[in-house]
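so my prof wants the structure for this chain in the tokens format not the other one, which i didnt know existed until like an hour ago. anyway here's the sequence
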Amino acid sequence: MDDKGSTLVCLWGLSPMAHEDDAARAILTAFEMRRELMRLYNTTCNIGISSGEMFSGVVGTSGGRKEFSVLGDVANLAARIMYWPIKRKMKGMINVDLNTRTLASNFFSYKYVSHSEFKGKSISIPIFEPYELEEELSDITKKHLHPGAFLKPHMNPMNLEPSTNNATKLKMVGSCVQ
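here's what i got, hopefully its the right format
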């Protein structure tokens, strides 16, 4: 809790639990948090997501208070992106920086929101809003295509099949992924 209200810091990609799709996992969690807060408490939240390297670990003195913390430009930028909609009287926003958009571009579609100047940055930073998956899935179902239609069971490319002369021959079964 600080002067801006309640704040929750979530981290993805900490060793040894890092994944290649941590940026997408963060965005999925943001959608779920926003949806659950709205459903349970009719509360809105703004979420800022930034991706990159930062220091994470225990900080403090040996005789004093110790706590786990993250330090660095990426953590500061995420906090500033989170606070950015409040200045514009907007609620319930999920915004990401360009690096997060790039890392999760295979998982989501994005809408460019604005360039903004942030404290500690010498250039303006582009801000993007990811589309919720349900919005994209509803567009697919409007076209009468079920998402499961794109999922194919794994097939062995080498399939043994009896031939007409009762001998066994090797048949290649191919599939194409576009």
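also thought this was worth mentioning. Residues 162-178 have pLDDT under 50 and may be disordered.
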